[in-house]
Design a protein that fits this description.
By secondary structure, the chain is mainly α. It has a single domain, classed as Alpha-Beta Complex (2-enoyl-CoA Hydratase, Chain A, domain 1), CATH 3.90.226. It has a three-stranded parallel sheet, with helices on both faces. The protein has a three-stranded mixed sheet with strand order 2-4-5. Helix 2 packs antiparallel against helix 9 and helix 4 packs across helix 5. It starts with a helix and ends with a helix.
Length: about 180
């Protein structure tokens, strides 16, 4: 999804309109992950911070380099969860670890992310080239309709929950932006 036009448009908007437009763009951005019909695969080869971390939970498969880190410093910035993480993180990590990650800004290593299920594999940079990319090329050869229908069966029961979480998170962030960070 290309948000460059929306972001350029924001540069000309001020005040409350800017906040509402920002919230709308964020909600639209996350909805693109929720609704994408084909499998979404991600490779993390460095720090994933904020939205780049939270949207990983909306991907179908995530691979990480052994140097990758995952960090959501929401409360340290006076912000709240985004990217459906208020729903996805407790499911992936369990409520206690999710709370540490979201409330206390606990940074996860690639090994931690693997242990908790955010990523499905951790590889060296060389292994990403030699092992992961061949897997992805092999997947690209599979019948597309089979992949799309399989994803739909897995994702469809969760769509309303994810869209509701996305809206609630964006509404809360909008409040935080309107009132200022405290």
């Amino acid at each position: 999804m290309d948000l460059s036009n929306d972001i350029e448009e924001l540069a000309d908007v001020e005040g409350e309109t800017h906040i509402k437009k920002s919230s709308f763009i964020l909600q639209k951005y996350v909805a693109a992950f929720i609704d994408y019909p084909k499998p979404l695969l991600a490779i993390v080869n460095g720090p994933a911070i904020g939205i780049s971390c939270t949207t990983l939970a909306l991907c179908d498969t995530v691979y990480a380099s052994d140097t990758a880190t995952f960090h959501t410093p929401f409360t340290a910035l006076g912000m709240t969860p985004e990217g459906c993480s208020s729903v996805t993180f407790p499911v992936i990590f369990g409520s206690s670890v999710a709370s540490e990650v979201m409330y206390m800004g606990r940074k996860l290593s690639a090994r931690d992310a693997l242990q908790y299920g955010l990523v499905s594999g951790v590889y060296s940079a060389a292994q990403l080239e030699s092992e992961v990319w061949p897997k992805l090329r092999q997947m690209a050869k599979l019948p597309p309709k089979g992949l799309i229908f399989a994803k739909r069966l897995v994702r469809e029961p969760l769509l309303k929950i994810l869209h509701d979480a996305n809206k609630a998170e964006c509404d809360r962030l909008e409040e935080r932006w309107e009132r200022g960070v405290k």
